Amino acid sequence: MSAALNETSADWEPLVVAFCCNWCSYAGGDLAGTSRMSYPANVKVIRVPCCGRMNPMFVLRAFQRGADGVLVAGCHPGDCHYSTGNYHGRRRLSAFKRLFEFAGFEPERFEVRWISSSEGDKFAEEMETMTAKIKALGPNRKMRDARWQSVTQSK
Amino acid sequence: MIIATGKSSLIDEMKVQSGQNPAECYQCAKCSAACPVTAAMDLLPHQVIRYLQLGLEEDLLKSKTPWICASCFTCAARCPRDLDLARMMEGIRLSMLRRREGNKFGPADLTPEQLEKLPQQALVSGFRKYNK
Amino acid sequence: MPRIGIFICHCGSNIAGTVDIEKSIEAARGFPGVVHVDEYRYLCSELGQDLIKKAIEEHNLDRVVVGTCSPRMHEVTFRKAVTEAGLNPYLLEVANIREHCSWVHKDIEKATPKAIALLRAAAAKAALNDPLVAPSVEVEKRALVIGGGIAGIQAALDIAEAGYIVDVVEREPSIGGRMAQLEKTFPTLDCSACILTPKMVEVAQHPNVSLLTYSEVEEVKGFVGQFDVKIKQKARYVDPVKCTGCGICYEKCPAKTPSEFEMGLAKRKAIYVPFPQAVPNIPVIDRDACLYFRKGRCQICAQECPPQAIDYEQQDQIIERRYGAIIVATGFDQMNPSHYGEYGYGQHPDILTGLEFERLFNASGPTGGKVVRLSDGKPPKKVVFIQCVGSRDKARGMNYCSKICCMYTAKQAILLKEKVPDAKSYVFYIDVRTAGKGYEEFQRRAAEEYDVAYLRGQVGKIFPESDHLMVHGVDSLSGKTIEIKADMVVLAVASVARADAPEVGRLVGINSDSYNFFNEAHPKLKPVETHTAGIFIAGACQAPKDIPETVAQASAAAVKVVGLLSKDMLQGEACTAEVNQAECSGCLYCEAVCPYSAISPVEIEERYHGGTLKRTVVEVNPTLCHGCGSCTVVCRSGTINLKGFSNEQILAEVDAICLQR
Hints:
The structure holds 3 protein chains of 3 kinds.
Chain A: E1 16-21, H1 25-34, E2 43-48, H2 56-64, E3 69-74, H3 85-102, E4 110-114, H4 120-137, H5 146-154
Parallel strand pairs in A: 1-2, 1-3, 3-4
Helix pairs in contact in A: 1-4
Chain B: H1 9-18, H2 30-34, H3 45-54, H4 57-62, H5 65-68, H6 74-78, H7 85-100, H8 112-117, H9 121-130
Helix pairs in contact in B: 1-7
Chain C: E1 4-9, H1 21-29, E2 34-40, H2 46-58, E3 63-68, H3 71-84, E4 92-96, H4 98-102, H5 108-127, E5 136-138, E6 142-146, H6 150-161, E7 165-169, E8 184-185, E9 190-191, H7 192-205, E10 209-212, E11 215-223, E12 226-233, H8 248-252, E13 256-258, E14 267-269, E15 271-272, E16 284-285, H9 291-295, H10 300-304, E17 317-323, E18 325-328, E19 332-334, E20 351-353, H11 354-361, E21 382-389, H12 405-419, E22 424-429, H13 439-448, E23 453-456, E24 459-465, E25 468-475, E26 480-486, E27 488-493, E28 495-497, H14 501-508, E29 535-537, H15 547-565, E30 569-571, E31 577-579, H16 589-593, E32 599-608, E33 611-620, H17 630-634, E34 640-642, H18 647-657
Parallel strand pairs in C: 1-2, 1-3, 3-4, 6-7, 6-18, 7-10, 18-29, 20-27, 21-22, 21-27, 22-23
Antiparallel strand pairs in C: 5-30, 8-9, 11-12, 12-17, 13-14, 15-16, 19-28, 24-25, 25-26, 31-34, 32-33
């Protein structure tokens, strides 16, 4: 096992899954790339059409599979490509975050951010901040499914 | 004239006291057009805000305008930027007073009975202003 | 089991510089379902695409994953390539290993495992990709223009010239709009009627254009390509076929009422055409003013009309038509400044708005073209113009700059000087804004050659004093207060959205900003489109603007419409929502969140214990659906899914990315 995966090692690296809406945040990520900005490789992006598409189930699944942090990024309120999708996303995910906290999970592991397609710098910054925060929090031991882990390690 | 670049404590105080931000003014001068007492002023009301914007604290301290202001609030009613110049004038007066001389007395010098009966601060500042 | 092929692009050294291609290939060979892995220097090149096409054939691939730049860059390219090799384009998946990996990470040790994770996620998703077909919609080759001002006229003419049928709906009895009310236009001072009237006639006579004046849109249903519209044509009480436009009826009519066209400064008859050059030149009877309709007696117009065109029995008619595209060009209103107590508008006949003042110059206007005071009929010698009345005013007006006032004030000051040579104009302004071709020069001419005094400041109070108006203002540049004994005051009031703009927006399904101006789809790159496909906007219903800008925008909207109508079929969005009606409980939560009204309830019959049961479920109209996926999340039975971004696909990506843990 590499040091990055060893939870007791000082070199442990968290895994952050970022769900980005296709129209703003994913494009913001592209801009971060074209502007050759830099952020930790811990972040892996999954493209969704809109943050209104974000079913909290996706977030839970990531944590269940061992992600240490999850970030959902969408268009700024008022700028949604689908007019109102991010309003639904905003309401749903903030309610979900409260529930998440209520259930005893660290709410800092789950964040929602608004990043426009022109905010490459903000994209890089948010990814940096999130990774640092999760690194400080340490590995996600509460939510991950131990059975899943044994499956992956046997592979 | 050298534009002040440093922070002006008078202007910062005025902002806190009045809750108004002079940066919001775009100098249309409607306040000066509406003011009934401009004839007696050395600086027109909009110029006072301009001085605040430029940080010309020394020049403001020399101006009579804040003392001429009758607090009729016509400027505040007419301002297209929703700024309350009358409040700003009051803020400037307070700051000026604090700079010119120390407080004649502080709350500690008053008996509890006096404190209870004391009128609100606006009234006190009114007395100060018109007793000069 | 799918047969997945993975192709990794070096992108020169853009990807290969920070991602170990060899390692990635090796890892990719181990992904489930992967039967072929290859690499290429530039995958997007002709040769790269050929490589993919050949591999599809040779290895019998049914899914393709490319590890390249962002899908926003080349997804279309690769989709085309796989289509050419006989695959459905939606069986392709892109792993963004450039913008989201090699370009943002410097360390090859870190970028490589991430690239592998991204490839694995793409392969996991691709395994679940279904072939998708975008729905196609037949396009009705007819356009609707709402509003017959200069924007509507221009748009209709352009569409008609391109060979398509277009209907123009105008609420007033005549087309022409605001521009018809103007005397001259800045910065060239051509007479407004001289340039507008020919266009009005042209649009009326164009074989491809139908004018529906004195009509209003009642209902808009449907979607791009097929809007079903109900238009109410109000009863004119005049037979348009018989009427010759002789004008005897309104000459003889005894009932008078304030003229809307003259901004209430003059009266019109109960039977009227709004202005002499009206198109069509067919009068209407105003029921509220007509003696016959109010009291049951009169009928003078019917007796006097030579061709017997008056028909008191005429009824409103509902016209139902289908259109492929709609342009909304409903124009603007002027703010009523009576709440500005200091200006005293409405309390003195010599305090006018800019548009009212404009009418005084017009030969057919309330004063027959003589610029005189409405109080005593004398020409004004001193006129004070006040700018930004209601504009740039967040306290009592609108936050925005109305854009046209600086220019029309300069124009009116020049025109005044020409009509009343010894008149003097004073303009109180906050800033003079003259961005536009020839505009700055024009305004400077007003100040330099026409003796217009520009005073930087505002007016605090206007007092009527004997036969004139005392204007108390300030010139902020000199720091002097100013008093002007004026004969007339002209207020440059804010241009505002039409009072009924929100209803119009709701009717056609487009949204507005906080001032009720209609929203364009993108402030820079989609200035005439709206968020509703097939509906376009032009003119001052979008924001205050001048005539050249309005005409340009109208032509732009017309081109968009022509482009749309030139297609026989429209390709819709392939990634749309789909519902499994067997599992749908009919709660209709999805209907509530859908921004496109693509989801609607439908009744189905099901067999139930030997009998049949009627039950409400939803259906998705794939031509309306844009694929945002909001419905999928609110669905209580989880039975709405989004094609191309299904729950299963996203979860597979999550699983694949987390596999390193």
